[in-house]
TrEMBL record:
It comes from the Eukaryota. InterPro entries: Galaxin-like (IPR055284), Galaxin_dom (IPR056601). Residues 13-74, 81-163 form the Galaxin-like repeats domain. This is Galaxin-like isoform X4. Pfam families: Galaxin_repeat (PF24748). PANTHER family: GALAXIN-LIKE ISOFORM X2, PROTEIN CBG12054-RELATED.
Length: 293
């Protein structure tokens, strides 16, 4: 282990001989010496892992640091909820709060139980529970009276319409869609552009990862009914489900690295336990790769 020299006077220490880790000076043992917060280690060390600036020793081989949580191969099928690791088959995580898995779903950090006379209205930024009322519908995270308002793409307008078509479903956090979507034909797609054409919203979608089918190409052109579909943002990536020859968005915006990695890893292990494989297609920035995972 590298020697801690921070008690001495080494302000002018040569970088080739010493390494400064957050104010602590260590002798550089080799070119593989690295800092982890105020500690030092070698990337050649066995069973050592730096995770969010904290150095862990004696960790199982092939462990990974994801979101500040260390996962070994026995835990990789689990997800993190705040700082805790949980089994999505037994528990439900709602914005950092863990619940026993029942016939329920998350509504932000609240639990929507199926036996309650309530409804969850959500947008990409908020989620709220409301008591169910006659002639009321969700419009994003608002619950509105159709006699007073109309809704189009999660935006309320003070002009009630008889032919108003509020969204018939809401976008959910990605973790709420596992494992239900693991064996479905889905893809992670980034919204490149959107154009309104009468009642339609024409979208150019860049395929990042296609699951359980081979993508037709890096770009897809699709149309959604503008008013009855959830609001989407340019540049954001969502999970989409293929229904016949059409696609509909399922998730709130996802992270291109951690969320997609989590979905693929968890779903892949679920499928391996059933002795099946998932065929995935990666297509981003003109690069594609096929593989069985």
């Amino acid at each position: 282990m590298a020697q801690n020299l921070s008690g001495g006077h080494h302000k002018d220490a040569e970088p080739s001989k010493y390494v400064n880790c957050s104010g602590k000076l260590y002798k550089r043992e080799s070119g593989l010496t690295r800092c982890c917060g105020k500690d030092v280690y070698s990337v050649a060390d066995d069973n050592v892992l730096c995770c969010n600036g904290v150095l862990y020793r004696n960790v199982p081989e092939d462990s990974e640091c994801v979101g500040g949580v260390i996962y070994d191969q026995n835990q990789i099928k689990m997800l993190s909820c705040g700082s805790e690791v949980y089994d999505h088959k037994k528990q439900l995580c709602c914005s950092g709060q863990l619940y026993s898995k029942t016939e329920a779903e998350c509504c932000g950090n609240l639990l929507l139980e199926s036996n309650k006379n309530q409804i969850c209205c959500s947008s990409s930024t908020h989620a709220k529970l409301y008591d169910i009322k006659h002639k009321h519908f969700c419009c994003g995270h608002y619950y509105y009276n159709t006699s007073l308002w109309s809704c189009c793409a999660e935006h309320l307008k003070p002009t009630p319409k008889n032919d108003s078509s509020p969204p018939k479903y809401r976008l959910k956090p990605l973790t709420d869609l596992i494992p239900e979507m693991c064996n479905k034909t889905v893809l992670f797609g980034k919204v490149e552009s959107m154009v309104l054409r009468q009642k339609w919203r024409d979208i150019v979608l860049r395929v990042i990862v296609a699951v359980n089918e081979v993508s037709q190409g890096p770009l897809l052109n699709l149309s959604l009914n503008h008013c009855s579909s959830p609001a989407l943002e340019n540049g954001m990536t969502y999970l989409w489900k293929k229904i016949k020859r059409k696609y509909k968005p399922l998730s709130i915006p996802v992270d291109l690295t951690s969320d997609i990695h989590m979905f693929i890893t968890v779903c892949d292990i679920n499928q391996q336990s059933d002795n099946t494989c998932s065929h995935m297609f990666y297509a981003q920035s003109g690069f594609s790769m096929h593989g069985n995972f």
